[in-house]
Amino acid sequence: MKKTATTGFTIVELLIVLAVLGVMVGFFLVTFPGARASARDTQRRSDLKQFQTGLESFANRNNGLYPSRNVTTPTSTLCTDIGFTGCPTDPASPQVYNYISDGSGAGAASATVYVLWATLEKPASPVTYWVVCSNGKSGTVTTTPSSSACPLT
Q1: 147 occurs within a structural domain
Q2: CA angle 69, 67, 129 (to 5 degrees)
Q3: How does pLDDT run across 23-73, given as a tens digit for each residue?
């Protein structure tokens, strides 16, 4: 009688592999949403930097003055004021980026200072905002900017 060799995995080996895969999937499911939120926050910071560059370019063409919006204004309006053809938007719609400045309002080049901000996802509590000011400062605050005065010290 000739004995034939059989090759393959035993049920125990397959169960061990499935258990290890289950642990790995569980780990990724827990950490992946946090990584996505961090990536969106990074995009928000980058978008506000683009607005800052656009505002400085606008000011260079307008005797050092920025578009005047003396109430909180979504940056979609600001894009029109500074001539952006493609307007960066918050990656988590319907959130918006915001702008406020001094001056007369209505978008005319009469403002001397401004504040841009976006709501960050991390940390979730307390609510945190990424702020970019006309004086070049940027950072986080936990109160919503309400005037053109830079809230960063």
Answers
A1: no
A2: 60
A3: 888 877 776 778 889 999 999 999 999 999 999 999 999 999 999 999 999
From the number of C-beta atoms within 10 Å of its C-beta (0-12, 13-18, 19+), residue 100 rates as buried
Q: Are 100 and 147 in contact (CB under 8 A)?
A: yes
Alpha-carbon distances, residue 151 vs 9, 116, 135, 144 (angstroms): 64, 11, 11, 9
37 closest CA partner among 137, 121, 151, 133:
121
Judge whether 120 lies within some domain: yes
Number of domains in the chain: 1
3-state secondary structure of 76: helix
pLDDT value, residue 99: 97
Considering only CA atoms, which of 79, 73, 72 is closest in space to residue 54? Answer: 79
User: What single-letter amino acid sits at 138?
Assistant: S
In a domain, 26, yes or no: yes
Domain limits at 77? 12-141
Sequence-ordered list of residues with C-beta below 8 angstroms from that of 77, at least 6 positions apart, any chain: 69, 99, 107
Q: Where are the alpha helices (DSSP H) in 62-110?
A: 75-82
Token readout for 101 is: 């400045």
